Amino acid sequence: MADAAQLKTRIEKVKNQLKGKTQVVTKARRTKKTLKRLQRRLKLVLIQGKKIDEQKAKHEEHLKKKTEKEEKRTLRVAAEKEAAQKRAEEKAAKKAEEKAKRDAEEKEAREKAEAEAAKKAEEAQSAKKTEVKEEIPKKAPKPKK
User: In the chain, what are the helix, strand and coil shares in percent, each to the nearest 5?
Assistant: First the structure.
């Protein structure tokens, strides 16, 4: 844009040269050509300035979209991590619950087995006592002569 300002001032100088003085035709032609050249350059500079502004705007928009995408991505990743952690906690809680249930069942089964073993031992002992009593028959009385 600084170029545009400089070119505008130069164009004004050349225009003033053409207005104010009566010149030789060849010099006037040169001045007119210079004027046209400067005007063309000004036009190009202005067009380039517009293009540069458009490029900057596009670039800023692109950066904005990129940052939005990045933010969405980070939010999504955080949500996924949170969900994974929650699933892991649920899984661990379920495992702990199943283990506690299994332990309780095993303990119950062990107690039942011990109770049955004690009962069988008692029965065996009582059966043994009765067997012992049955095994030893009373001595038959001796026949009297």
Answer: 90, 0, 10
